[in-house]
Design goal:
The chain is of the alpha+beta class. It has 4 helices and 7 strands, in the order αββββαββααβ.
Length: 148
């Protein structure tokens, strides 16, 4: 399942290359973040202003068939652009975790649910703790569930 529309690759070459390689090989290649060996997923959204298709890799944080999408932007003071895409259209999202992408619905979590997902995210990618420590904003966490 893919989103229809014009795809505009990210200007960041290594991200663009990773997305292309991951998709072309069904996740057999480019399935980790650079040289860390930590697994990633490919997330596809629709741009909230342009309506164009956007793709990026995020750390793979999966639990019980659902995925956490952590809007860390490396601890920057602002949310990543894709955060606004998810807020604007939480049903226009796909995840690729292996050979085929699938449609998901996302929701931003808070309270105890966010704490549980944050713990899972930090276990998968410890740098998230450092990212939160270096920014005043609360890093948002979305949970993505397969669309019915």
């Amino acid at each position: 399942m893919t989103l229809e529309g014009e795809y505009v690759p990210t200007p960041t070459k290594w991200v663009r290359d990773q997305v292309e390689t991951y998709e072309r090989t069904g996740g057999k290649e480019a399935g980790t973040l650079l040289d860390t060996g930590l697994p990633v997923i490919i997330v596809t959204t629709r741009g909230n202003k342009s309506g164009k298709i956007r793709k990026f890799a995020l750390m793979r944080v999966e639990h019980g068939g659902e995925y956490a999408l952590v809007a860390s932007l490396g601890g920057a003071p602002k949310h990543p652009v894709w955060y606004y895409n998810l807020v604007a259209d939480p049903k226009a999202v796909t995840i690729q975790d292996g050979p085929e992408p699938f449609l998901v619905e996302v929701r931003e979590v808070s309270g105890a649910e966010k704490a549980a997902w944050w713990e899972r995210a930090v276990a998968a990618f410890p740098n998230y703790e450092q990212y939160q420590a270096k920014t005043e904003r609360q890093i948002p966490v979305f949970v993505a569930s397969r669309a019915s």
